[in-house]
Design a protein that fits this description.
single chain, 889 residues, mainly alpha, nine-stranded parallel β-sheet, 37 helices
Length: 889
């Protein structure tokens, strides 16, 4: 571990110990330390079983109140370790960028551009750069497990930790820093880690807005600036920029109503209005800040004729506004103009029709007039400095901040159309059908106020027939009785299950016959978006078969688009967890089939991932640049050739892995009684009780089949049980069955070296295995009454670990990924402690007759009235394990 990181963790850990001693006495600290030492001894040791059993005995002897205190202590430790690691990553990124030229930084846009230019020529590379699109779409599920109050404490502690790098040792400032650190850690310890109630949809919108306010608004244009600095070299900053905006935010928060009855038409309107309020507030502040700095007097930097004409137009709009701006900027015409522009942005936010800008393009046009005037007057640095940043911000966020995307299930649309056919659009319709129609009316209202760009994408979950896309257009017409007020809508299919992925091209081909689809293709330059679901396909056929099916579907959809001269954007519904398409996004982009990217990449950034990737400006800039660089490079001839040739060469291997892994996966999940057993051996039901998101965890009241269960709790529950089954099950059998054939192991190793898709798959499985603990997993599996299923899981776990390491050549999971491996090793023993506490709580809750009372492992009788306390302990551990594994679903 790097010395600086070790020092930070030691400092924060020591301060947490001080807080625990002050709050609970030396005995609390002793109990925490004893459990910590045992789990560390058990982790990776030959006698780990004995130490783990001793640790379990210690946990069993804790009174319930002490168990809760210990769970909270370990959870606090994880928050501190996480923030220390995140800050060290920021520290390392800054050091690396200060020591190396932009073009020499790995996975950077300059490096990607250089390679692309070498292959296709600089002019073509610049053209492709000009068409680059990265579209992250924010979603609320799975939401951040930790409370916003805890997140606030984490941010403040991170700031204090960063402050120590610039303070001198021994001074009063360092002592003050330590006092404040102790106070913040004490607050974190005393703050309940569990929300009292579920957040509302608007609460989730506000959480996302907080990230926009804190980092996104200023960070996105900084990425463009860094690229422009490199492209223009010595001319940067005093000539028109080459870089153009390429990051465009989308959001499902407030628009995704599939399975979430809390998302209504009114909520959608509120979400759009709230986002616009944040965007316009930020733009107004940025415009005022930029304007105040333009203190260039008219004698040395005279206004152009166009700027004078703009000023006259604004005087006609509001003499009060221009008089005030002029009074604040005597003999400073550019300053006065930008301050008046800021006033018009404020009027746009207030909905003052006389002064408001109708569309963001009007605002950009006015700013361009100021820029041109400054350049004409010989002040290009003023033209293309902060003023250019403001232009980029308007172009990136518009007045709406993020495009609000609607999602609804295809069967909801089908039922609505059937009911309308029976009763008429103005008949006595059910609440659900009226809500479907009101959703379109909400979209119309949002577009009318903020423009088409604010909300036009309509995603259809479980698209299983072309009529499911036609239904989107038919319902829009019905909602507005065929009038011209109907919103512009693009129906986007979401192919989720294995069968849907297999049938995707046939559905798309048939949908081209609908006149509404042809009309949209004519209006939008033949642009089509198709969404791919990672979660349900993995739950359907297992992680290996789903990965291969998704890759095959992308290849076939890209070929379909090419045949029809369609500009395709594939939208990847990736989660944070490996069972839901998680893992490094940039590596996934570079493994895609030819022409499935073509300079456009769109993906969901889900709940907990939003803060992890965008919460810190340095990390956010790095993430954006890595994904954008991979998106630009994915269409390089060498990358496309490598992926195409590897896919063809290893096609027989793919078929072998698909069949074997799927059979093994179905052998488990289709066993009689599997859903009920799954709910016994994991905290599935309790995960549904954790108030971390507005969306229900399952479709029904009980889980009688996997179809009832959403993919997120499926992944979340296996992660909590330290099994991570959703990320690897079936791979071990598939690798062994192929590897024992003559030359099979050599072929697997060649595929790992040469086939990016397979490399990414195995590297991600290694990550899942590193977070898996067989000893802990066995304790969860013992909660069930099916030894046959438990043995199947443990056997496949051992087999997967053995064969993955044989193929990769590593001695242990993540052996070749030092930073990630260190992070997992640092946390695992501490996660073990929380897992033992969770198993104890689960055992108590699973004990027959628990409502009347139970006997604990230590022989203590617990009255049934404590059942809620056991559940509270369980939820505390769920929260803590999430923090330790840095993963929910």
């Amino acid at each position: 571990m790097p010395d600086q990181l070790r020092e930070d963790i030691r400092l924060l850990g020591g301060m947490l110990g001080t807080v625990l001693r002050e709050a609970g006495g030396q005995s609390l600290l002793d109990d925490v330390e004893r459990l910590r030492e045992l789990t560390i001894r058990a982790y990776g040791a030959d006698d780990g079983g004995a130490a783990l059993a001793e640790a379990a005995d210690v946990v069993a002897a804790f009174p319930l109140e002490r168990a809760e205190q210990v769970a909270r202590a370990f959870t606090c430790y994880f928050h501190l370790a996480n923030l220390a690691e995140e800050y060290h990553r920021v520290r390392s990124l800054r050091a690396r960028e200060s020591e190396r030229a932009a073009g020499d930084v790995d996975d950077s846009l300059p490096q990607a551009f250089t390679q692309l230019a070498e292959e296709v020529g600089r002019d073509e590379a610049l053209r492709r750069l000009g068409e680059l699109e990265f579209r992250p779409v924010l979603t609320a599920h799975p939401t951040e497990a930790r409370r916003r109050a805890v997140s606030g404490a984490v941010r403040r502690i991170s700031g204090l930790l960063a402050e120590r790098d610039i303070l001198r040792p021994g001074g009063t400032t360092l002592a003050e820093n330590e006092r404040r650190l102790l106070a913040e850690i004490d607050t974190m310890w005393r703050t309940s880690p569990i929300r009292e109630k579920k957040p509302s949809v608007i609460d989730e919108v506000k959480t996302a807005m907080g990230v926009f306010d804190a980092t996104m608004f200023r960070t996105f244009p900084e990425v463009y600036r860094r690229l422009d600095d490199w492209l223009l070299d010595g001319d940067a900053g005093h000539t028109a920029p080459v870089a153009r905006p390429f990051v465009y935010l989308g959001t499902w928060i407030g628009g995704d109503r599939d399975g979430n009855p809390n998302v209504t038409a009114e909520v959608t309107r509120q979400a759009a209005t709230l986002a616009a309020e944040h965007a316009l507030t930020a733009l107004e502040a940025a415009a005022r800040e930029t304007g105040r700095q333009l203190t260039l007097d008219d004698d040395g930097t005279p206004a152009s004729a166009d700027l004078k004409a703009l000023w006259q137009r604004m005087r006609q709009l509001s003499d009060d506004l221009t008089t005030q701006a002029s009074a604040d900027s005597p003999n400073e015409p550019h300053r006065a103009a930008v301050l008046a522009i800021a006033g018009r942005v404020a009027a746009t936010r207030r909905r003052d029709a006389d002064l408001a800008y109708a569309v963001p393009e009007e605002l950009v046009a006015d700013l361009r007039v100021v820029q041109a005037s400054l350049e004409e007057a010989g002040a290009p640095r003023a033209a293309y400095g902060d003023l250019q940043r403001l232009v980029w911000q308007v172009q990136t966020f518009g007045f709406h901040l993020a495009e609000l995307e609607v999602r609804q299930h295809s069967q909801v649309h089908a039922a609505a159309l059937d009911e309308i056919a029976e009763k008429g659009v103005h008949g006595d319709l059910s609440d659900r059908t009226r809500e479907v129609l009101d959703t379109y009316r909400a979209l119309g209202a949002v577009q009318k106020r903020f423009g088409q760009r604010a909300a036009r994408r309509y995603i259809v979950s479980f698209t299983q027939a072309p009529e499911h896309l036609e239904a989107v257009y038919r319902l829009a017409e019905l909602a507005f009785d065929g009038t011209d007020d109907a919103p512009v809508v693009d129906a986007i299919p979401l192919f989720e299950t294995f069968d849907d992925l297999e049938n995707s091209v046939d559905i798309l081909e048939a949908a081209l016959e609908f006149p509404q689809v042809q009309r949209r293709l004519a209006e939008n330059d033949r642009r089509v978006e198709v969404m791919l679901g990672y979660s349900d396909s993995s739950k359907d056929v297992g992680p290996v078969a789903a990965t291969l099916a998704l890759h095959s579907a992308q290849e076939r959809i890209a070929q379909w688009a090419e045949r029809h001269d369609i500009t395709l954007t594939l939208f990847h519904g990736r989660g944070g967890a490996l069972g839901r398409g998680g893992g490094p996004a940039n590596r996934a982009v570079l493994a895609q089939p030819p022409h499935s990217v073509d300079g456009r990449f769109k993906l969901t950034e889900q709940g907990e991932v939003i803060l992890a990737r965008y919460g810190d400006p340095t990390i956010a800039a790095r993430h954006i640049e890595q994904v954008a660089a991979a998106t630009l490079l994915a269409s390089a001839p060498t990358v496309e050739k490598r992926n195409a040739e590897a896919t063809r060469r290893f096609e027989p291997l793919a078929s072998s892995l698909d069949a074997s892994s799927r059979a093994r996966f179905h052998g488990l999940v289709k066993s009689e009684g599997f859903p009920q057993w799954f709910a016994q051996v994991t905290p599935l039901e309790e995960v549904g009780l954790l108030p971390i998101g507005s969306r229900p965890a399952k479709r029904g009241l009980s889980v009688n089949s996997l179809d009832d269960l959403r993919a997120i709790p499926w992944v979340f529950s296996w992660s909590q049980a330290r099994i991570n089954l959703a990320g690897w099950f079936g791979l071990g059998t598939a690798l062994r069955e192929h590897g024992v054939r003559e030359g099979g192991l050599d072929e697997l190793r060649a595929a790992y070296r040469e086939w990016p898709l397979f490399t990414t798959l195995l590297d991600n499985v290694e990550m899942a295995l590193a977070k898996t603990d067989e000893g802990i997993a066995a304790q969860y599996l013992a909660l069930g009454d099916r030894d046959d299923l438990a043995d199947m899981v443990l056997e496949e776990l051992r087999l997967t670990r053995e064969w993955v390491l044989r193929v990769t050549g590593n001695e242990w999971p993540l052996a070749n990924r030092r930073v990630l491996g260190r992070a997992v090793q640092l946390r695992s023993p501490y996660v073990d402690a929380l897992s033992l506490l969770q198993v104890r709580a689960l055992r108590a809750l699973r004990t027959e007759g628990a409502s009347e009372g139970i006997t604990t492992d230590s022989g203590t009788w617990v009255d049934g009235g404590y059942k809620d306390r056991w559940r509270h302990l369980l939820l505390l551990t769920v929260n803590g394990v999430s923090a330790g594994l840095q993963n929910t679903g």
